[in-house]
Write a structure and sequence with these properties.
Helix content is 28%, strand content 22%. With 283 residues, the chain is an alpha/beta fold. A hairpin with a 2-residue loop joins β3 and β4.
């Protein structure tokens, strides 16, 4: 089993891999954020990619999301776990806790979020944007390690890089959202189009800007909480392989099978080649 991991703020590397090596992966969309670290944890081959690059060089709007997902798929990733820092929009989701969101509200506007276009039109189903079977395995791995994870919740994906205003934070709460971040909805959309299972392990670092008795979010506060919780995220990932082996089946691997609406004879050669590399078949 091959597991891709997209590391976020605070998770720039993964310790304890055997057979460790780095792989440079060219893609039709340019280079990914960094070379992919490949290695093994037990029977699981892990592909680790820090989405912000080494040294945290790319803002959420500058990340080459398409190249990142395409590179992981090229190396055989069957599932992609996004590890991401989030702000809490709920009293019961305190800094230091973990959440497995199952829904997104996408407010981003300045980034490429599809492998279709440029000669071919395609639409994938996205009503359930994360893989329930994959999420269940992550929850089981967390429980086995004695760590509580909140299963389910709505993630607001904002463009950034600025944090929310208080008015925005209150608005998002009124929508019934649970956490807020800047990257995961884009990754989820691309993983669905790439036909890989996607799940998000969200690390709560702050209360965004809505909480009356807590200071508004700051980089210093986020980093302090992340340092205390990155080890917990890595431990969940180390245990994950044992639980993925018995995970329920899902339809993610054929999510784009009937997505293309463009007439076959109207699809450009470039688009046909691009999607053949992604899906292993002609569109």
């Amino acid at each position: 089993m091959i597991l891709g991991v997209l590391g976020g703020s605070g998770l720039y590397d993964f310790d304890g891999l055997s057979e460790r090596r780095e792989e440079e992966v060219p893609t039709p969309f340019g280079p990914p954020s960094a070379p992919i670290t490949s290695g093994r944890i037990g029977t699981t081959r892990l592909l680790f990619l820090p989405r912000h690059g080494r040294g945290h060089r790319f803002s959420p709007s500058e990340i080459n999301y398409r190249a990142n997902v395409f590179a992981l798929k090229t190396l055989g990733a069957e599932r992609v776990l996004s590890v991401s820092a989030v702000g809490s929009l709920r009293e019961g989701l305190a800094p230091g806790q973990f959440v497995l969101p199952d829904q997104f509200i996408d407010k981003t506007w300045g980034r490429a979020a599809t492998f279709f276009g440029a000669g071919v039109v395609g639409h994938v189903g996205f009503a359930e944007p994360t893989c329930a079977a994959f999420r269940g395995a992550i929850g089981a791995a967390a429980e086995a390690g004695g760590r509580r994870v909140h299963d389910g919740g709505t993630y607001v994906c904002m463009e950034g890089p600025q944090f929310s205003t208080r008015a925005e934070s209150q608005l998002h709460r009124s929508w019934g959202a649970d956490v807020i971040g800047m990257t995961a909805a884009t990754e989820a959309k691309l993983c669905r189009e790439a036909e890989v299972c996607f799940a998000l392990l969200a690390l709560v670092t702050d209360y965004d800007a809505w909480h009356a008795s807590e200071a508004a979010v700051s980089v210093e506060a986020v980093v302090a909480v992340l340092r205390a919780n990155v080890a917990g995220a890595q431990e969940i990932i180390r245990r994950l392989g044992d639980h993925l082996a018995g995970a329920a089946s899902c339809g993610c691997a054929r999510a784009a099978a009937h997505a293309v609406i463009t007439a076959p004879d109207a699809i450009s050669a470039e688009a046909r080649s691009r999607l053949r590399l992604l899906h292993g078949r002609d569109p």
